């Protein structure tokens, strides 16, 4: 759609340039007589109008190259063209002014029709291109908002992960382990150990008197131990019933 609008702008630039040069040559009387055209009076007005048309042609050509100006300039130039075409048709067909010959009137009417068609076509194309550009801008803005929202969500998730990692590092997780109860060993009451007299050691090489003396000494020790245990202040083993 936009390449077609650029082609229409180039056509507009050529038409505007041709009319601008024609009006710029208003003082050239022989040229107007050869083309069977009415010369603009005074010539200064025709030349000023020609300069304006040449400037508008340059603007249309520049807009066909610069995409940011295409739709706006095409709309302005289109309105100028179709309004000029309508004005020419009204004066030529309705008011029959200026009085032209048959060939000149045909050329003037065809010129008005061409300006009307090209102008309306440029206006409609510029409107369609502008609507498409608005849709693209809305879609681009929506995509940009979606990308920003996705970036915010990703940053938020990363921050949550970092925070959870910090909490885990600062406070270690304790796992519950089964508690093993200690087993108390069963103890049996220990009764008093009866001190039994050790049998006399039979050593070879002792005489009978030495053996008897040792036996008497052992018996004396046993008697002394028994008497100490039976004393009233002596410690006694605990009572186990």
TrEMBL record:
**Transmembrane among keywords:** yes
Which portions of the sequence form the region Disordered?
Answer: 187-241
Give the organism the record lists.
Paraburkholderia domus
Q: Which domain of life is it from?
A: Bacteria
Recite the UniProt keywords alphabetically: Membrane, Transmembrane, Transmembrane helix
* Name of the protein: Transmembrane protein
Spans of biased composition, class Basic and acidic residues?
211-225
Q: Indicate the transmembrane segments per the record.
A: 7-31, 43-61, 73-94, 106-127
Q: Does the keyword Transmembrane helix apply?
A: yes
């Amino acid at each position: 759609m936009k390449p077609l609008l650029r082609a229409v702008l180039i056509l507009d630039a050529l038409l505007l340039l041709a009319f601008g040069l024609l009006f710029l040559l208003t003082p050239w009387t022989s040229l107007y007589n050869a083309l069977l055209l009415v010369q603009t009076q005074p010539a200064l007005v025709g030349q000023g109008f020609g300069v304006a048309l040449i400037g508008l042609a340059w603007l249309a050509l520049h807009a066909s190259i610069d995409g940011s100006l295409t739709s706006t300039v095409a709309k302005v130039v289109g309105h100028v063209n179709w309004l000029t075409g309508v004005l020419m048709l009204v004066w030529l067909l309705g008011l029959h002014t200026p009085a032209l010959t048959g060939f000149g009137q045909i050329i003037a009417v065809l010129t008005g029709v061409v300006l009307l068609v090209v102008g309306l076509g440029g206006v409609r194309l510029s409107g369609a291109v502008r609507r498409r550009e608005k849709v693209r801008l809305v879609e681009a803005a929506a995509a940009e908002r979606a990308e920003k929202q996705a970036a915010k969500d990703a940053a938020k998730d990363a921050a949550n992960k970092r925070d959870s990692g910090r909490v885990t590092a600062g406070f270690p997780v304790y796992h519950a382990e089964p508690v093993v109860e200690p087993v108390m060993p069963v103890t049996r009451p220990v009764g008093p150990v009866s001190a039994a007299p050790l049998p006399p050691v039979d050593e070879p090489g002792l005489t009978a008197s030495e053996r008897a003396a040792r036996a008497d000494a052992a018996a004396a020790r046993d008697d002394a131990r028994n008497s100490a245990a039976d004393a009233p202040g002596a410690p006694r083993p605990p009572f186990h019933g």
